[in-house]
Amino acid sequence: MKTFRSGLTSLLALPLAACGAGTVVPPARPIAPPPGPPASAFMKQGPLMGADARRLTQMFGEPRLDIRETTVRKLQFANGRCILDAYLYAPARGKEPVVTHVDARSPTGTDVDPAACATALQAK
What is the annotated signal peptide range for this record (predicted)? Predict the structure, then answer.
């Protein structure tokens, strides 16, 4: 009798299972995410932004490091009070690379304000 009931239950469940099966209809056209802000919106403002390597050298003297890669140039300036890393990228093909980002830290590695570090580097 138990086998009969379980078989009957299974048999009755089949039509119900068929009702739940459906197809998911994709949207008529793909939904594109909204456009993000332009790259220039991510550039921090500051006295060093847009400066080229020659200008940085005039301000701080010869860099402690000058690392050149395919798309970026990193100049590092330091004195006993702070270390400043300036990252230069070309704004367009064939143009002179300019500062688009700076990081500054104390000799112990604590973050410091880049403008304050720039002032300290100029004071020598």
Answer: 1-20
CATH number of the domain where residue 80 is located: 3.30.1450
Nearest CA among 75, 121, 85 for reference residue 105: 85
Helices within 29-82 (DSSP H only): 53-60
Residues in the chain, pLDDT under 50: 4, 36-43
Helices (H), the chain: 2-20, 53-60, 114-123
Helix, strand, coil percent values for the chain (each to nearest 5): 35, 20, 45
Q: Look at the chain and report how many structural domains it folds into.
A: 1
Q: Number of H helices and number of E strands within the chain?
A: 3, 4
User: Within 10 A of 56 (CB to CB), how many other CB atoms are there?
Assistant: 22
Q: What is the reported pLDDT for 47? A: 76
Distance CA 123, CA 51 (A): 19
